[in-house]
Amino acid sequence: MTAHPPITCAADVAEGARWLAQSEPRFAAALERTGPLPLRLRPPGFAGLLDIIVGQQVSVASARAIHARLVAAGLDDPAGVIDAGEDGLRAAGLSRPKARYVMALAASAFDFEALHRMSDADATAALTQMPGIGPWTAQVYVMFCMGRRDIFPAGDLALQEAARVLFDLSARPTPKNLSAMAAAWSPWRSVAARLLFAYYRVLKQKEGLS
């Protein structure tokens, strides 16, 4: 089990943001541009992991549209997914590989409740045993669906680019290098990720991109 209580409300995120700003001046400067950080919690269980799978390697707008279609069609729970089959998932907009992953998840009877009794590392490892669930997807689930406060998905390109700009790096850091940087942000690495995600959005808006 994790040594730290989970993030459950905006006050927890604000506490982490204050700690980060006091520990790292660049985070303080970034917070001045981003404003208060969002809570970003998602429902635990099948529905939350489905939402993350939908968002793999697609734009935020596309992910939202596909997820809305899945929910409207009742494909956000295992029974509905199994009834619809892979063709039903494809009709809602999922790619063939993602449809297979979601079908496998629906049929797995995965024990999401058991994850809450595990450490961050063990919960992440358990999730990655399922088809289509890589480290990024598992870490995002543990961070946003379980509320764990010290998770950092260093393989995320948005986090890498935000860190490159904020810390004035000569190149985008590799996942290994960014993970090493993030060690200094413990025990609030999940809030550091929220801050870098928010800072990335600021950068994209500055460039005139959505």
Secondary structure: elements and pairs:
Elements: H1 10-23, H2 25-34, H3 46-54, H4 60-72, H5 78-91, H6 96-108, H7 112-115, H8 120-127, H9 135-145, H10 157-166, H11 175-182, H12 189-206
Shape: globular
What are the secondary-structure elements, in order, as H or E?
HHHHHHHHHHHH
Tell me the β content. under 5%
Please give the share of residues in helix: 55-70%
Largest sheet: none
Mean pLDDT across the residues is: 93
Q: State the end-to-end CA separation.
A: 38 Å
Which class of the largest domain in CATH terms?
Mainly Alpha
CATH homologous group name of the largest domain: Hypothetical protein, domain 2
CATH architecture of the largest domain: Orthogonal Bundle
Number of domains: 2
List unreliable stretches of 5+ residues. Answer: none
What does this entry show, briefly?
The chain is an all-alpha fold and 210 residues long.
Characterise the protein shown here.
By secondary structure, this protein is mostly helical. The protein folds into two domains: 10-40 and 150-206, Endonuclease Iii, domain 2, CATH 1.10.1670.40; 46-145, Hypothetical protein, domain 2 (Endonuclease III, domain 1, Orthogonal Bundle), CATH 1.10.340. The chain is built from twelve helices and no strands. The protein has helices at residues 10-23, 25-34, 46-54, 60-72, 78-91, 96-108, 112-115, 120-127, 135-145, 157-166, 175-182, 189-206. Helix 1 crosses helix 2 (25-34), helix 3 packs across helix 9 and helix 10 crosses helix 12 (189-206). The longest helix has 18 residues, at 189-206. The mean pLDDT is 93.
